[in-house]
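User: Sequence recovery, please. Input:
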């Protein structure tokens, strides 16, 4: 909390930290600045006795020694004339003679801040600029509120005439300082004012949007809507007062701008009270809040009246505004005594607002002469709200992250049993969405991988060693399948069934990489004194059905299709040919030759459960590189020998395969065909002998 207080004070000081005005008191319409140093004190507020000419334009002034005097800045309301006191309506000129330093080199300028009506600046009888159109009648009069920088002529003695007219506001006259400085300093200060107010508006807008978004995420948190509405009210007041930065973007008529200013003022207090009521409903009085709401509603209806009427509330409403703040302060202090959550920073924040609001009201009424600080104190207040809610949000985020992590672990655990890819192809985002009977038809490539002679091999191991071996083996082949865009559907003992939903080449590439990984695994096993293993891989592509099978108490994801059965049978064919990777002709036809793999046709084989035999193809890259290169170099001879075998020219085929075996004695496929040719020739001789 101490750090917050220090930060708040530093922020307030930074918002107000600028070169202050040096006050020079004019006497009887004259001010001598001949000895003043604008390098040391760059800003001079021209306060004091200005000559006052009621209902007189600068061009009609006839100056005498008995001219009236009005101490500026001040309103002319109640000024005593021969015929009585004047009201806020009318027009008047203010004149001041200035003597500047002899050695002044820089261009001088006059800064006239917004005066809530309209004004014009005349220098030595010549019009130099202003805001709006001041005039002697309401037909020519055009009200406008805007700060102005007037560049002064390069001369030692100048006469300033400030012509002001008011026919709309409750008070007429000069509201703010008339400041003399160098043009560079004047422009820099005005730019800084606008930048500060723009930054304040950005903060209010950001905070408002932040809490509005929080409200939409949590409709039960009414306090977030309360701080949004309060931030919106303060935002509207900030853009419609001071430098009126809204005019930099939208050219609003005076009557809209003035009503926007008062509307934001009327509602800032009750919205602030309502915000605290939503946080501490037991400490704050709802009836009292309704009183402030009713008052603001009545005053808002009064905005349909001409400005001369509703601007009169500026002298009355501050009482209600301050009372509202005092009640908020009282109830917050009571909440603080009861150790209510976050009451301490809120109490600190509302204290800032009360100080700022009181200062601004007294400054606006010309009771004290300071500057407007309420927007800066409100920034401190909303910052404290962001901090307060930030801690609450942080706690919620931590809980949410913990829950998300639990859900992630939960999902990760389930994905080990039911692959997320399986759910994706079922059209499900979550395992909880799965129901019995969910199914979808897809065309995929099925890969079966099985360890050769695992039964005999496993008999030499204990149950634990069997599990350790299988897990070690599957740890190597599983990632390869996933890396190639496939997923494991199930483990069937030592066999692996994987699906490749996107590209046939993914399955072929995965099979080749699996054989490479198995060779590395065998090298590791040999170093450990274990016997090597061989794995046969069968691949087929076809239509299949993914779905949820079982009953309501026990379900599992599975794949049902003739394509699955055929892939399993093709894996069995690898044992017949002693091959490493065998694929169906359908897979071979649809696969791409751009991967650089090498194939050779094996034979048409009968598949159990199918009436027609199917062609199968061997992927030569599944062998060790040396063997694969030897087989690839003899592909043409193999093709000719296989063609002779299929033409039943067994003698020619036998010689061809014998020649291949001479080159590659470990070519199990050529050896199988060689033996078949021998058997065919022997049967042929027997048939000839018996005939």
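Assistant: Recovered sequence (691 residues):
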């Amino acid at each position: 909390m101490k750090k917050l207080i220090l930060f708040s004070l530093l922020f307030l000081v930074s918002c107000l930290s600028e070169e202050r005005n040096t006050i020079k008191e004019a006497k009887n319409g004259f001010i001598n600045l001949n000895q003043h140093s604008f390098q040391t004190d760059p800003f001079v507020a021209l306060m004091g006795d200005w000559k006052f000419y009621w209902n007189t334009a600068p061009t009609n002034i006839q100056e005498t020694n008995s001219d009236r005097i009005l101490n500026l800045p001040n309103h002319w309301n109640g000024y005593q004339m021969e015929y009585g006191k004047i009201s806020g309506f009318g027009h008047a000129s203010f004149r001041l003679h200035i003597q500047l330093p002899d050695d002044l080199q820089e261009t001088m300028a006059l800064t006239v801040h917004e005066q809530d009506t309209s004004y014009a600046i005349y220098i030595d009888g010549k019009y130099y600029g202003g805001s709006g159109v001041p005039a002697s009648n309401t037909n020519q009069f055009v009200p406008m509120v805007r700060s102005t920088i007037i560049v002064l002529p390069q001369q030692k003695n100048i006469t300033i005439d400030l012509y002001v007219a008011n026919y709309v506001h409750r008070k007429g006259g000069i509201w703010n300082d008339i400041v003399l400085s160098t043009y560079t300093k004047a422009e820099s200060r005005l730019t800084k004012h606008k930048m500060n107010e723009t930054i304040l508006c950005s903060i209010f807008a950001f905070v408002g949007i932040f809490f509005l978004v929080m409200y939409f995420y949590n409709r039960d948190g009414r306090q977030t809507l309360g701080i949004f509405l309060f931030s919106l009210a303060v935002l509207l007041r900030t853009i419609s007062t001071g430098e009126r930065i809204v005019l930099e973007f939208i050219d609003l008529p005076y009557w809209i701008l003035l009503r926007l200013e008062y509307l934001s003022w009327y509602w800032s207090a009750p919205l602030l009270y309502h915000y605290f009521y939503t946080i501490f409903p037991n400490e704050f009085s709802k009836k009292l809040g309704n009183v402030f709401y009713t008052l603001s509603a009545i005053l808002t209806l009064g905005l349909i009246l001409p400005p001369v009427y509703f601007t009169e509330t500026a002298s009355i409403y501050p009482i209600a505004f301050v009372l509202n703040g005092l009640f908020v302060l009282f109830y917050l202090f009571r909440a603080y005594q009861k150790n209510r959550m976050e009451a301490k920073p809120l109490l600190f924040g509302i204290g800032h607002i009360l100080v700022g609001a009181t200062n601004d009201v007294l400054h606006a009424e010309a009771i004290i002469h300071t500057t407007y600080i309420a927007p800066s104190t409100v920034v401190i207040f909303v910052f404290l709200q962001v901090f307060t809610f930030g801690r609450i949000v942080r706690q919620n985020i931590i809980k949410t992250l913990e829950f998300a992590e639990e859900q992630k672990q939960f999902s990760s655990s389930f994905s080990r049993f039911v692959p997320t890819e399986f759910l994706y192809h079922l059209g499900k985002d979550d395992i909880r969405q799965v129901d019995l009977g969910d199914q979808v038809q897809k065309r995929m490539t099925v890969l079966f991988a099985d360890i050769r002679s695992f039964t005999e091999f496993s008999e030499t191991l204990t149950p634990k060693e069997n599990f350790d071996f299988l897990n070690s083996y599957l740890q190597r082949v599983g990632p390869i399948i996933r890396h190639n865009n496939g997923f494991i559907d199930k483990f069937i003992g030592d066999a692996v069934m994987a699906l490749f939903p996107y590209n046939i080449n993914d399955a072929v590439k995965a099979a080749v990489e699996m054989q490479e990984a198995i060779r590395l695994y065998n090298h590791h096993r040999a170093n450990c004194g274990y016997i090597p293993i061989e794995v046969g891989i069968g691949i087929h592509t076809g239509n299949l059905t993914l779905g949820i099978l079982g009953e309501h108490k026990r379900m599992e994801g599975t794949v049902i299709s003739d394509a699955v059965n055929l892939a399993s049978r093709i894996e069995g064919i690898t044992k017949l040919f002693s091959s490493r990777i065998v694929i169906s002709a359908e897979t071979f036809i649809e696969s791409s030759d751009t991967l650089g793999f090498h194939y050779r046709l094996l034979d048409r084989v009968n598949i159990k459960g199918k009436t027609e035999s199917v062609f199968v193809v061997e992927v030569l890259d599944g062998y060790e590189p040396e063997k694969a290169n030897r087989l690839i170099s003899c592909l043409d001879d193999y093709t000719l020998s296989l063609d002779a075998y299929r033409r039943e020219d067994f003698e020619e085929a036998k010689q061809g395969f014998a020649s291949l075996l001479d080159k590659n004695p470990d070519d199990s496929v050529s050896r199988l065909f060689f033996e078949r040719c021998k058997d065919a020739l022997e049967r042929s001789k027997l048939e000839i002998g018996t005939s």
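The chain has 19 helices and 23 strands.
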